[in-house]
Write a structure and sequence with these properties.
4 helices; alpha+beta; 3-stranded antiparallel beta sheet; 28% strand; 4-stranded antiparallel beta sheet; elongated; 167 residues; single chain
């Protein structure tokens, strides 16, 4: 049985905060349209509304819809972990069923560390363990990894040790 070297879990805050803010922005645009529609109807005398209550209701709706839009991603990320053994890496997701995606180190041809401005600010990023195959569906994406540069060095060390053990 291979020895487990280390385990990494995604940084949920780093992964979900930008997504949450995008949804807030999208729903706010819709709320502004609804507000102007109601205000137009009120000026025509079609309906009588209290604008303070309307604004409060729209703010609540925007946040509830934004939170509900990220709940599945939260569940997936909070139940995901990456296990690094001597010979391979495993992505494990335990939700209703357990899903494991394994990749031997000998298949990894390159590590790509994707960092956005937000990722650099929060010191976490997505990492792609790329295979030599042209089919990108074989790649393993490590989502929202804190201190990704340190993790990248650890992975390269494991790759080197695995190559040495095979030869």
């Amino acid at each position: 049985m291979p020895k487990l070297n280390f385990v990494i879990k995604p940084d949920i805050t780093n992964a979900l905060l930008p997504t949450f803010l995008r949804w807030v922005f999208r729903y706010t645009v819709g709320a502004v349209v609804v507000y102007f529609l109601f205000s137009f109807l009120a000026r025509l005398g079609v309906m009588d509304i209290l604008f303070g209550r309307l604004i409060f209701a729209l703010i609540i709706v925007v946040f509830v819809l934004s939170l509900s839009s990220i709940k599945l991603q939260f569940l997936v990320l909070s139940n995901t972990r990456y296990l690094f053994y001597d010979t391979h890496v495993v992505e494990e997701r335990k939700l209703l069923v357990t899903k494991r995606h394994s990749m031997p180190y000998k298949q990894i041809s390159k590590i790509i560390n994707n960092s956005t401005i937000w990722d650099r600010f929060s010191k976490a990023s997505n990492m792609v363990l790329r295979t030599a195959r042209p089919d990108e569906s074989q790649d393993l994406v490590l989502r929202s990894i804190k201190n990704s540069e340190d993790v990248e060095h650890k992975i390269y060390k494991l790759l080197k040790e695995d190559a040495r053990a095979r030869h």
